[in-house]
């Protein structure tokens, strides 16, 4: 018996059809794992690879570790290590990237020939993007010179702690390292079957309730333990891998990318609710899922196309074939994980490809974060616009019997600029504001999810299938749906 025949005979013990060699019908179709056949030995190899690489991902992204009295996930430790190692040099690197991105955008959008690198990279941007990049670069140059040279004093409305001093060091530099570290470790999480296993198990819950694949639970968990930016980047990656349709990617990025536990702790403490952290944070998670139940069933999300980025249309059978708990659901998840891991490229190739994708979005994301984030905070800090807009919500707050209506109403719309702002607006008077009102505005800010200084920019820069106007509408809808729900929880808990 030759080797080829031996493999076929061994395979018959595991599958009825032979699988030598493995032929993948379409790698752009993530469901190819349901159509290919592998041998028993290949299955074992795939399962070991899946367990090993997914185990590394779980350790990096989801397992808290206590080192020198500080508790964080390994992703956080690695991220902080690079932030501290590079130090102020990171600010200069980001500034240079923004300058290069701005120059490249004007050239690529208006001068570069079709087919050239610059045209391919910037040609899909709108005509307004180069000017937004220019604004972000100018903000960052002023801030960088201000903090590095005593002889340079930038305008307070650009470099102050309430504007540029919040956006650039905390958000822009933070997202810079989040993308790099995240891009290195994402293949461990996404490419070796972990999400296929989770998706198979959770499909009967996520699909009928939220109209998204079970895999989307990964995005939600990632946002809770790392950051909302990381969750959006994961969603974008899976959309481009044809795991999510346009509608699913829009739903997941705008509905499940909640704030991380660490940032939530900062927000809750700022509102003077540190003693009530657990019930504040976990009630916000419950409310987030309740809001999502309604959001997926109304426009604009309900009107999004069920089309993958490859152009393939998702069928009704694709959506309904796995919505029941059944005896073989665990085995199906294991089979998919093993096949995905076995047919994946080497981890080195996957990491390189992921890093390349990460570095492609960094210049655009960082420059837009600076432009949108600082502009939004300038408007919130130095104009009465959000004060006026907040008055629209006063009657609804009164109807819901929310205390301190006039004091907290301006905080409601300001969350679109930056999710930390609603609490910052009341931070200097928390001793005069009822604890119920503080809970209300804190929880509302955490469930709004869509804000200019981070998630909106990352969604736009990674070219997720959602437009800026749609994001503004979604923010308003989420807010209107959330207000009565948060009010009910406020009356129950406080």
From TrEMBL:
Any keyword Transmembrane helix? yes
Instruction: Provide the Nucleoside transporter/FeoB GTPase Gate domain boundaries.
Output: 173-272
Q: What does the UniProt keyword field contain?
A: Membrane, Transmembrane, Transmembrane helix
Which top-rank group of organisms is this from? Bacteria
Q: Where are the transmembrane segments?
A: 50-69, 89-107, 127-147, 167-190, 249-268, 280-298, 365-388, 408-427, 439-461, 473-493
What InterPro entries does this protein map onto?
Answer: Gate_dom
Instruction: State if RNA-binding is listed as a keyword.
Output: no
Indicate what this protein is called per its UniProt record.
YjiH family protein
């Amino acid at each position: 018996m030759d080797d080829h025949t031996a493999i076929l005979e061994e395979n018959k013990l595991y599958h009825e059809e032979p699988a030598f060699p493995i032929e993948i019908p379409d790698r752009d179709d993530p469901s190819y794992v349901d159509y290919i056949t592998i041998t028993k030995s290949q299955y074992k190899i795939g399962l070991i690879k899946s367990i090993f690489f997914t185990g590394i991902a779980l350790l990096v992204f989801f397992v808290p570790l206590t080192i020198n009295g500080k508790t964080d996930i390994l992703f956080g430790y690695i991220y902080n290590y690079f932030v501290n190692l590079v130090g102020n040099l990171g600010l200069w690197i980001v500034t240079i990237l923004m300058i290069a991105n701005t120059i490249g955008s004007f050239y690529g959008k208006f001068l570069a020939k079709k087919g050239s690198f610059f045209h391919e990279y910037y040609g899909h941007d709108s005509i307004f993007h180069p000017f937004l990049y220019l604004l972000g670069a100018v903000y960052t140059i002023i801030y960088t010179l201000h903090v590095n040279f005593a002889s340079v004093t930038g305008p307070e409305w650009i470099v102050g702690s309430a504007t540029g001093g919040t956006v650039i060091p905390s958000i822009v530099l933070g997202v810079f390292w989040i993308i790099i570290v995240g891009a290195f470790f994402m293949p461990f999480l996404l490419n070796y079957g972990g999400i296929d296993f989770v998706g198979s198990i959770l499909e009967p819950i996520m699909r009928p309730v939220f109209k998204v694949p079970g895999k989307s639970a990964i995005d939600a968990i990632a946002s809770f333990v790392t950051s909302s930016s990381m969750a959006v980047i994961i969603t974008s990656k899976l959309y481009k891998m044809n795991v999510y349709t346009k509608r699913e990617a829009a739903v997941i990025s705008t509905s499940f990318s909640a704030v991380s536990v660490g940032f939530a702790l900062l927000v809750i403490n700022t509102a003077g609710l540190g003693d009530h952290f657990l019930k504040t944070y976990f009630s916000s998670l419950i409310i987030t899922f309740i809001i999502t139940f309604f959001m997926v069933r109304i426009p604009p999300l309900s009107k999004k196309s069920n089309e993958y980025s490859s152009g393939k249309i998702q069928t009704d059978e694709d959506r309904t074939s796995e919505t029941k708990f059944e005896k073989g659901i665990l085995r199906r998840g294991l089979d998919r994980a093993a096949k995905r891991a076995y047919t994946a490229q080497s981890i080195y190739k996957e990491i390189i490809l992921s890093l390349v994708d990460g570095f492609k979005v960094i210049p655009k994301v960082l420059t837009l974060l600076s432009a949108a984030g600082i502009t939004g905070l300038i408007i919130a800090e130095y104009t009465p616009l959000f004060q006026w807009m907040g008055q629209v919500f006063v009657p609804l707050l009164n109807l819901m019997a929310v205390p301190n209506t006039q004091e907290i109403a301006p905080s409601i719309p300001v969350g679109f600029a930056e999710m930390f702002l609603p609490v910052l607006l009341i931070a200097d008077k928390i001793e005069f504001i009822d604890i119920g009102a503080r809970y209300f505005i804190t929880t509302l800010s955490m469930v709004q999810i869509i804000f200019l200084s981070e998630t909106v920019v990352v969604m736009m820069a990674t070219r997720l299938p959602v437009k800026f106007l749609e994001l503004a509408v979604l923010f308003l809808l989420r807010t209107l749906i959330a207000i009565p729900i948060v009010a009910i929880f406020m009356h129950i808990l406080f």
